[in-house]
Give the backbone structure.
Amino acid sequence: MTELTHYKTPLKPTPFHTRTAALCHNNDWGRWAGFNVADSYGEVELEYFAVRNTATLFDLSPMMKYRIAGPDAERYLNRLLTRDVRKLKPGRVTYSIWCDDAGHVLDDGTLFRFAEQEFRLCSQERQLVWLTDSAVGFDVEIADVTEEIAALALQGPTSAAILRRMGIAGIDDLKPFAMIEVPLKDGRLTISRTGFTGDLGYELWIDPAFAETLWDELMAAGKLHGLRPIGSHALDLVRIEAGFIATNADYMAADQIIRRTRGRSPFELGLGWLVDFEKGHFTGRRALLAERGKGSRYCLVGLDIEGNKPAGGALVYHNKKTEAGHITSAVWSPTCKRNLALAFLKAPYGSEITGDFWVEIYVLKELMWDKQMVRARITERPFFNPDRRRATPPYDF
């Protein structure tokens, strides 16, 4: 009998590991798609404030990346995704989702279009099996290129100034969701004006052979601009402020749920604007059309909660007595000075009934739990939405 040893395999280092490990002073590491990534480098609060006030680097390398190319690439992606891919021009990026036949979201991510027949789809979870199964009948090639591309998120108000200091041309003309390719030493660097912080920022994509060179040049150029690395804990805080959802945090990926009722549709996630019924058939279209006709079971809303105690995992009540839903993500926002949360409410709450909500928060005070019932109101997302996020050319901080 063959001995199974896969569980002995250590987590893989990312192409930036030699640099991130040297700076991870509290040795706080986590796991992402089989890779070892920093959850924090020191004080999470300082990392958070760096995102909002200077600039930060986050190691994106474990993000799943799939190259999709061939004569039917556009037609295949239009069948797979809920958006109309035909509207995406070369040199542009778009945010999209894809569903199973029940209309439940499998994952969300970004789609890059490099040429008429060449795309890259990035996702949080592994999607290769679903992508290849969905490709039957299409003349298209799909490859997992995750380990062939190193990636960094450069985010924060001074991020554009850092790229300018590096001598990278074209930054002032780069609009949100656009990308450019520039030389870096002997390699090529792709820069997209995208990110997961709701702030001014860029994502940098490069061959792993030049990863350390990229890191070193960024840190040197960013020394006078407050550049510092951040981990996943700080990133989670700012993405909640931006009102962004996260797979397996705010909703379960449809291929990982055990109970079918746990799946969530684009409409239930507040992503109905990503669904284009006019483009023709796509996976989940029939189920989503039926849902649009009869209404959704749930509604994802933003909440503004009294007090300053984050309400992660708390129950939401209507009129203090009827359970209306639960909170999936929560944060006390130092920038907004508000207690913010994302919450799933059961219909008709959040759609027809929009007031008199209360949240039950348990606060640990000197080893004793104190229950607080505090008022909450539905509020617009994103919670944090600065002008600098979209300004072209970017402000020169």
Notes: The longest helix spans residues 211-221. The radius of gyration is 22 Å. The longest strand covers residues 322-333. DSSP finds eight helices and 20 strands in the chain.
